[in-house]
Write a structure and sequence with these properties.
Protein name: IS110 family transposase
Shape: globular
Number of strands: 3
Radius of gyration: 11 Å
Structural class: alpha+beta
Order of helices and strands: EEEH
Organism: Anaerocolumna chitinilytica
Strand content: 35-45%
Length: 54
């Protein structure tokens, strides 16, 4: 199991997500709307990353 740290900068219109590997290196970052649809998109993307980490 490889840990993935997730940081989320929440604002009224959008949320910026930063993914960091255990060694401190950036995995990726992206933005989603601060809405129910954005939350669904966030969960789907995190689940995809779960399976892409070596």
């Amino acid at each position: 199991m490889n840990p993935l740290y997730v940081g989320i900068d929440v604002s009224s219109k959008s949320n910026v997500v930063y993914l960091m590997l255990l060694n401190g290196n950036k995995h990726s970052s992206f933005s989603v709307a601060n809405s129910q649809d954005g939350s669904v998109q966030l969960v789907k993307r995190l689940l995809c990353f779960k399976f892409s980490i070596p």
